[in-house]
## 1
Amino acid sequence: MAFESFEQIVQVCQEKSVSFAEAVIGEDMKDRLVTREATLEKMRYIWNSMLEAGRSYDENRISTSGLVGGDGGRMSHYADSGHTLCGDRMSRVIAQALQMGESNACMKRIVAAPTAGACGVLPAVLIPLFEETKQDCTSSASASEAPVLTEDDFVLSLFVAAGIGQVIATRASIAGASGGCQAEIGSASAMAAGALVFLRGGSCDAIVQSAAMSLKNLLGLVCDPVSGLVEVPCVKRNVIGAVNAMSAADMALAGIKSMIPADQVVDAMKEVGDLMDVSLRETGRGGLAATREAIEITKKIQGISK
Ligand code: SF4
């Protein structure tokens, strides 16, 4: 895929009267010289891998460092109680983000979207919606409000996410080591927001607006993993990426626009990342990683591994 700007994608959507997903599919076919079926098949494989990663979560598993594990289960049980502040859907989004982040920390198979550290954001917004869709299909009280989605729609939404991630990777970065956490969780959040807007039938412009708003809201987020492990604060940052994506998607669907165009937001993110001190770019030497508690944790981990 070779899109260098959101503007280019929107232009293709308008000129060819195709959806955002179709514009990205067309570009992938051209770029990799593959058929439409081949590109769809590859994305179906990624979607199934994401679902499988969600299913394989084990709430009893703790990471080797002992820093993370079990919170995804705790949140899920709390969601089951029906007494959450955020409501059922958002609580399940939070639980899924924690679960996928913990699975990554526990070395389980996940889908890096766009990176392993940010692997929880996209599935957190998509899997609960997919589960709801399956229930809607079997429920007689279904189909009253939102359009019924098929599994293929979710596969197509991954192309939207991929297109957004590709533009950010081309213009800026998706790596915490070069752009800070804004580049990882921020990018994942933009990808997730766009996928959601697509699934809700939003226009290409609304998809781009959601990406811009979600990225803006996480601008400046530093990368400061305790002990250099992708665990603290990474697992819980997946939650904020997902929740931010949900709110940005709803804002875009409501017709709210970003005052700063999406491509310029990405450029600003690059500039902020370039200005970030190296201690705040995945070196584990600044921010939360430099707190007294984090230093104690690091000493303990090193002691254990000696
Ligand atoms: S803090 Fe750094 S390592 Fe952790 S998710 Fe963010 S970018 Fe990735």
## 2
Amino acid sequence: MARVSARRRPERERVLLPVRQNCPGCGGHMQLRYENRRHLVMLPGAVRLRLKIRRCEHAGCPRFHVPYRPEAECALALPQQEFGLDVIALVGVLRHREHGSVPEIHAALRGRGVEIAERSVTNLLDRYDELLATNLTDTRRLRRVLKGQRGVILALDGLQPDVGHEVLWVVRDCLSGEVLLARSLLSATAEDLAPLLREVAGAVGVPVLGVVSDGQTSIRRAVERALPGVPHQLCQFHFLREAAHPIFEADRHAKVRLKAEVRGVRPIERALEGRDDPVAEVARGYCAAVRSAITDDGRPPLAASGLRLKARLEAVADSLDRVAEKGAARRRSRGSAS
Ligand SMILES: [Zn+2]
């Protein structure tokens, strides 16, 4: 069945920056030069990517004006793909582990809120199979990928669509953007990952200039073991996402509970309808303040919207306390005067 409705505009936006600033060709600084935009459908929802692109501007450099894209981009999606790698990984698991048919996989994805047409599922299955068939012994392909490059910068990422499922490990070259190797593994220890890196380093035929990853301990150990002395850079985006995940979850939970506590705003607003006396005006102002606090969504991981909501609701409550105190004081002074 084809998709009937137009795809909704993604509500989430992510800005990705290349971690590396020095040109792999000449070592000089690469300026941020322009921005590419990309819409992706991922398991947590649709996302709008704003990709900051660097470029070397030193005349004579072998990478003069060759774009350098954010390393994290290829951890999210393959080139020219509308769906995230996490969706592709899940499609692969549903097919090869759970032996789901295309309609079953389609239903499972729709059930998780992924807007996808059935024929796209077939397409993603092909992408998954192609990905795992990526072969390091295909020298023609490697030569094409590494044409004119003096080295590779490896990015290693593990995608696990669900806890307990196998992890789809993808090794890419950040300079060409090409996938060099992909494997589906049940575990992800340094012992499992080091051979993947060794295999890649042995096949590319050019030096490994560096590795970029989210800095998981197992990946760090694997890099130390397989590629001793090769600089390993943590991708801030991944690192932050990993580090912020538990906080983000706790914050989201807190926000839900806070919202539940201020559900009483609506009845108050209704009771005030048709009144335009000063008291009603003030009460309406407070209701508006509470409403605006509820809809003030921060952008994780840098802004904790639950904490912000708490601060704003506390400001409203403090203000109400002050009003109540003033009212009480006035009543007291009126009482003593009479
Ligand atoms: Zn350069």
